[in-house]
């Protein structure tokens, strides 16, 4: 890295804490007696992120690794502002966008209506949505299923459609959450190509993945999250090697 | 909350920070296509899942009016207001609009978790879309109301145009209610269980099924409170002009207009203040 050139910070994460409040007793089912009058019953706090801080600079591609439940996805959702922090804050040049995998947007509506609504919600005008609609549908490769309600889709089909909608627009700061594993082999290839395309347009990219090979291929810097804290932050080679050493 | 040095030096804004109210409203206005499209799509999807489709928009309130009209008509016997069938139909049809906004508003955020958690957009569009959806259904109901009232011997006249300002106020009021219930259920999930009871209490107290001044003649203090009960004002004004029900004092319009504006803007501010909260599990 060239030390003389001033690096432009794009995302600053400052002592970020995220807590989830869950209504669940957390006890064995048989043990839940005399709970009715106890008003604090069942409110349990899960401290998902415990003071994460780092700064991402322009044109960086940052890998994010960690075991399941370590807080990777929570961190990414907090970056987009979709999950509000309990303490600390995220500052960013523009709102980071998440290309994620998840359930249907509006399960009772058809795929094509989800495309229109998703596009409008992202801030496209009606005309822009009309022109983009065909491309998005074609990219998702849903064929005739595009007119069926989204709840009838398989999880792979849902993920494909969501990916196609979210990737229809170029982003300054882009977060890709395991999207490389979306769908079948064929779609994975095409989505990887699309991500690379978006990556050239985007200023900064976060890639969340369990695949160390794709992290090594695409990222120059990697962040390792472990049980809600930042375990390690540095050049991909070092971090991935250390991570694999522990995981083995 | 102070920014760390480099965020300050580079003037980076905080992600997800709630914009100022005017900026927020402008942002919502920019998504007006989203609001209307969402309302239309949801309405169609809801109707396509039934064989009778759009007919249910009208059949449901008609069946309601029949059942309630029959039971309360029998129970009240001599205390029934004159022209009882038309009285009940107008009441039930109008109240259906309020109840729909009240219920759908309460589900607007909590029932769209996936959407809220995957895309960033002003959340106020969701309860507003629910209100628009109910408004479109209400327009269909109003069209069907015309032949029903004709069956009971009330024919369209110029008086019926009063419905235009009345529905405008009523819609504003209901949108405010939807915004309020949308935020409340996000804070207190238990309210989802409680709200149906509240909406039923409002249904039975707002004079949908009985003439308040007859039933409560012995309780003048309670009757006085009815002069400031916007739902009652809506029903009284509509009934007077549509089916020649008893006259109302003209300040009812003032009460209704003022409370509509207050509830709408109060609801909008109330909803906006928790904008950062929506989407958290």
Automatic annotation (TrEMBL), chain A:
Any idea which UniProt keywords this protein has?
Answer: ATP-binding, Nucleotide-binding, Transport
Q: Which Pfam families match?
A: ABC_tran
Q: Provide the transmembrane region boundaries.
A: none
One cellular component term (GO) for this entry is: membrane
Q: Can you provide one Gene Ontology molecular function annotated for this UniProt record?
A: ABC-type transporter activity
User: Superkingdom of this entry's organism?
Assistant: Bacteria
What the entry lists under InterPro entries is as follows:
AAA+_ATPase, ABC_transporter-like_ATP-bd, ABC_transporter-like_CS, ABC_transpr_TagH-like, Bact_Polysacc_Export_ATP-bd, P-loop_NTPase
> Does the keyword section mention Acetylation?
no
* Domain ABC transporter, residue spans: 34-248
Family listed:
Belongs to the ABC transporter superfamily.
The entry's protein name is Teichoic acid transport system ATP-binding protein
Automatic annotation (TrEMBL), chain B:
InterPro entries, A to Z: ABC2_TM, ABC2_TM_bact-type
Its main subcellular localisation, reduced to a broad class, is membrane
Q: Does the keyword Cell inner membrane apply?
A: yes
Family membership, please give it: Belongs to the ABC-2 integral membrane protein family.
Which compartments is it annotated to reside in?
A: Cell inner membrane; Cell membrane
Q: Name one GO cellular component term.
A: plasma membrane
> What is the native source organism of this protein?
Tessaracoccus bendigoensis DSM 12906
Query: Which protein, by its recorded name, is this?
Result: Transport permease protein
Keyword set for this entry? Cell inner membrane, Cell membrane, Membrane, Transmembrane, Transmembrane helix, Transport
A Pfam family hit: ABC2_membrane
